Structure formats: C-alpha cells, structure tokens
C-alpha cells in the first residue's frame, strides 16, 4: 500500500517536472519558430540561442505580486489557474511513454484523460467569471462554447479508435498498432481496421486537439484584438504563469493522445531502434506542427469556429463512426 | 452536397498551401537587424543634422560668409569668425546648431557656395535633456579628427 502511494507521489513529481520543463522550453521553441517563420532572429540574447530566456521569464513572473482585482470572487480567482494546470498533470500519470515507462496504467485510460481534459474548460470559465471583467467574461463564454463544440467530434473520433482496438487501455491500443507502420491507426490497410477514412479521422482529431487546447487559429478565448487578453486579462504573476504552463501542458497531452491513438505510440516504423525515443520523436514533431500551424493561419471568427465544428467535423466524424462500425461487422 | 464537399476539399488544400509557404520561409535567412548590436549603413541621401566639411589641413572649409545663417528659416544656426593678423580669409571660431528647431529642410546646405556643410548620417539622437541637441559643430569636427 505504502509502496503504491510512494509510486504515485514520485510519478506526480516527475509529471510536474516534465510538464514545467516542457512548458518553459516550448515557449522558447515557439518564439524561435515564430521568429524563423517571420524571418526574425527571435530571443537570442540571454544565453546561447536565448536558451536562458524561459528561466529568466519564470523568475520575473514569480517575483511579481499576485494582484486580485476589487470585487473579484477570490476563491475562484485563485482556484482557476491551479485548475488549468492540475488536469494536465494528472493526465500525465496514465500516459504510457513506452512498455515500461508509465506511472499508472489503467484499463480506462482514455476515459480518465478525457474526464480531466473536460475540466480545462471549467478553469477558463472560473477565470473569466471570477475576474469581474467584461472582456474576461466574454472570453470565457467563448471558451466554453468552443470546448463543448469540439469535445463532441473529438470523442466520436476517439470512440472510432476504441471500437477498432476494442479497448480503452492506452497500452493495449499501442500494442495493437505495434506490428508494423501499416498497423498504425492512421494507415488504414493492415491491422484491425481496413478503414480508408482513418486519415480523415486523424485530421479531425488533430483539429479538435488544436481547438480544445485553445491554440491558434482557434484561440478565440484570448483574441487580443477584441478581448485584451481574454480570460487571463486580470491575472499577473504566477497566476498568468500557471495558465501559460497549463496551455503548453495541454498541448503536450493532446499530442501524446494523438500519437497513442493514431501514430502507434512508441512502436517504431521499420523495427529500427525500438524505444521511448520514437514516442518522443513523434510527440515533438506533432508539437512542432502545432507551432507551425499557429504561425501560419490567422484567427478564425467565432461563427467560423462553431460552423466548422457543427457543420463539418461532427457530421463527418459521425459518418466515420458508422462506416467503421459497418466495417468491423463485415470483417 | 457537391458544393459542401468541394468547399471542404478546397479549404483543406488551401490550408496545406499556406503551411507550405511558412515551411519555406522557415529555412530562409533572417532579414531583420538586431539593432544595438548591428547597424545598417545609412543610404547616400540620408539627411541627418548638418556637419562641417574639412579641407586637407583638417580645418573647416567654411569662410564665415553667413549665408547658411541667413538661409535658415528657423534660425537654428549661429556662427562667428575672426580675421587673424596677416590672413586674407576669415577663420571660423564658433558654429552652433540648435537642432531642437531644425526641420532638416536643407536650405543651409543648398545656400553654401564653399562646400562647407553636409548632411551627417547621424540618427542615434535620443536624450532626456534639451541641451544635448545644441550641437557645437566645430567641437564635433575636432572630435572627428582626434
């Protein structure tokens, strides 16, 4: 009993360290990547290639005072940033990075991750509501309608994968894809699914991940041109820092899920050098795509965003679900 | 129905084209200059504040005719000279430019018949004190010659 408790504590500590390090250096990667795309140098003053920028930013944020605006709901105001970070950390506990590197594998891993992911929207709602600021309020209204709209196609697509795998266990899903690159769920021809629509499933899932993590072009929650800074308008100091870390931690979780569900987890493409690095390679390639997309496309409108979900993604993912069910019945 | 799917298809394709463009830009060299560490050479016709031109001996070309002083619409320029014993020409002893009032119209440079003043390439002119913008051009010339 005490041993399992210790395991969980160690796992959570590692998860927090992993999430924090990722958040810090993804900000760096994002700023450098954005700069490259816009043909600027980016942060390059502090340390080699500007690598000391994230810790210095962190120190600056921690040194600042956490100001609570007058008339704000204090409890919710303080709870919201914690709630932004906490589900992402908890999700790391059940994500399998390789055969042996997993803190606590569960047979309902997918369910747990989506349960925690749905709490992310709540933190935005709390932040916007408790700030007593009209911009924050508008932003949280948008964020919630967005979260509701995009969770549906995301879950339907996930159900498709779960039907193919016949399991909600993340380890089991990866094991079923591990035979060869053609068994990965994104490629339709071999494996349990002979579903030629799986690449589209992947695109739908990836789009929903972008929207669920409030990333550009779906970052309507923090549309600077209209809403100042959105739900974190009133946050300074580490309150803002936690929202920032939460956003990047959520990106990592979203990419981890995409890798596990569609890209075969840690399984290697041609039997080359099996190991955890394949997982990390796929993970960081996906995250690079996140950054690449953010600096390519302008922000959509709220109508465009909701239309995309309700008129395109949900019908297509529903059709895909029916199609997959039919294929499973036939083969 | 066809319109619905063709809209999705065209939208998707356009997204990939956009991503292709940013992908290419990613590998191109940067075009910006990190200013305090690198500076660009100013172009030929850049107009900074005026500066005295020296002759081969290192003295100013100016013969203190005062045309620039009269040409200046804002009264920025005040200069003085004296004729030393036994010399033919006047020698410049003071050339003060009040840059707070100068609008860089260039009338002074145009009016000069002796090739004595030119535009400098100086653009790093920021200060919190007004006095910093009253330039003693003679002193600047000596500084340059040091």
Describe the structure.
The complex is a heterodimer of chains A (331) and B (146). Chain A has helices spanning 2-37, 53-63, 74-94, 109-130, 134-165, 170-177, 198-212, 224-227, 237-262, 276-294, 302-330. Chain A has 11 helices and no strands. Chain A is an all-alpha fold and 331 residues long. Helix content of chain A is 67%, strand content 0%. Chain A has one domain (2-330). The mean pLDDT of chain A is 82. Chain B has 146 residues and is α+β, with helices and mostly antiparallel strands. Chain B has a domain at 50-145: Alpha-Beta Plaits. Helices cover 30% and strands 16% of the residues of chain B. Chain B has 4 helices and 5 strands; from the N terminus they run αβαββαββα. Chain B has a 3-stranded antiparallel β-sheet with strand order 2-3-5. In chain B, strands 1-4 form a two-stranded antiparallel ribbon. In chain B, β2 and β3 (91-98) form a beta hairpin. Chain B is elongated and about 100 Å long. The mean pLDDT of chain B is 85. Chains A and B meet through α1 of A and α1 of B.
SSE inventory with pairings:
The complex is a heterodimer of chains A (331) and B (146).
Chain A: H1 2-37, H2 53-63, H3 74-94, H4 109-130, H5 134-165, H6 170-177, H7 198-212, H8 224-227, H9 237-262, H10 276-294, H11 302-330
Helix pairs in contact in A: 1-2, 1-3, 1-9, 2-9, 3-4, 3-9, 4-5, 5-7, 5-11, 7-9, 9-10
Chain B: H1 2-26, E1 50-52, H2 67-71, E2 77-82, E3 91-98, H3 107-111, E4 117-119, E5 134-136, H4 137-145
Antiparallel strand pairs in B: 1-4, 2-3, 3-5
Index terms:
heterodimer; A: about 325 residues; B: about 150 residues; alpha+beta; Alpha-Beta Plaits; three-stranded antiparallel sheet; two-stranded antiparallel ribbon
Largest interface: A-B, 16 and 17 residues
CATH topology of the domain at 50-145 in chain B: Alpha-Beta Plaits
The level of helicity of chain B is: 25-40%
Low-confidence stretches of chain A: none
Largest sheet of chain A: none
DSSP helical segment count of chain B: 4
Note the run of SSEs of chain B as H and E. HEHEEHEEH
The helix/strand class of chain B is alpha+beta
The gyration radius over C-alpha positions of chain A equals 20 Å
């Amino acid at each position: 009993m005490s041993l399992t408790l210790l395991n969980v504590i160690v796992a959570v500590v590692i998860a927090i360290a992993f999430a924090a390090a990722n958040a810090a250096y993804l900000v760096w990667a994002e700023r450098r990547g954005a700069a490259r795309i816009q043909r600027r140098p980016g942060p390059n003053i502090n340390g080699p290639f500007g690598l000391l920028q994230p810790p210095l930013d962190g120190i600056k944020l921690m040194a600042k005072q956490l100001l609570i605006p007058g008339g704000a709901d204090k409890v919710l105001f303080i709870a919201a940033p914690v709630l932004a970070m906490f589900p992402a950390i908890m999700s790391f506990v059940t994500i399998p990075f390789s055969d042996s590197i997993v803190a606590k594998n569960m047979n309902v891993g997918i369910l747990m991750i989506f349960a925690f992911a749905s709490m992310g929207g709540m933190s935005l709602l709390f932040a916007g509501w408790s700030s007593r600021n009209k911009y924050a309020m508008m932003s949280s209204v948008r964020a919630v309608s967005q979260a509701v709209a995009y969770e549906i196609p995301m879950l339907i697509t996930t159900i498709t994968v779960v039907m193919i795998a016949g399991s909600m266990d993340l380890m089991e899903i990866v094991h079923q894809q591990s035979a060869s690159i053609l068994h990965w769920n994104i490629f339709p021809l071999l494996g349990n699914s002979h579903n030629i629509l799986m690449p589209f499933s992947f695109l739908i899932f990836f789009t929903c991940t972008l929207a669920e993590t409030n990333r550009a072009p779906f970052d309507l929650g923090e549309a600077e041109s209209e809403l100042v800074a959105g739900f974190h308008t009133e946050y300074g100091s580490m309150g803002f820092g936690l929202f920032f870390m939460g956003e990047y931690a959520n990106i990592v979780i979203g990419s981890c899920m995409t890798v596990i569900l569609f890209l075969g987890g840690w399984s290697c493409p041609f039997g080359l050098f099996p190991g955890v690095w394949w997982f990390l390679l796929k993970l960081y390639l996906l995250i690079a795509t996140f950054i690449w997309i953010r600096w390519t496309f302008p922000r959509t409108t709220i109508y465009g965003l909701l239309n995309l979900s309700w008129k395109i993604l949900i019908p297509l993912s529903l059709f895909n679900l029916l199609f997959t069910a039919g294929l499973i019945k036939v083969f | 129905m066809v319109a619905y799917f063709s809209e999705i298809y065209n939208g998707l394709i356009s997204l990939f084209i956009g991503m292709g463009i940013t992908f290419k830009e990613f590998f191109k060299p940067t075009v910006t200059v990190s200013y305090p560490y690198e500076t660009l050479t100013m172009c030929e016709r850049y107009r900074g504040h005026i500066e005295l031109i020296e002759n081969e001996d290192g003295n100013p070309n100016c013969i203190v005719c005062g045309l620039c002083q009269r040409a200046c619409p804002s009264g920025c320029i005040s200069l003085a000279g004296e004729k030393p014993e036994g010399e033919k020409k006047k020698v410049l002893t003071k050339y003060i430019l009040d840059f707070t009032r100068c609008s860089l119209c260039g009338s002074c440079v145009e009016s000069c018949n002796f090739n004595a003043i030119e535009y400098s390439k100086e653009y790093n002119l920021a200060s919190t004190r007004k006095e910093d913008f009253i330039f003693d051009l003679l002193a600047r010339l000596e500084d340059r010659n040091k």
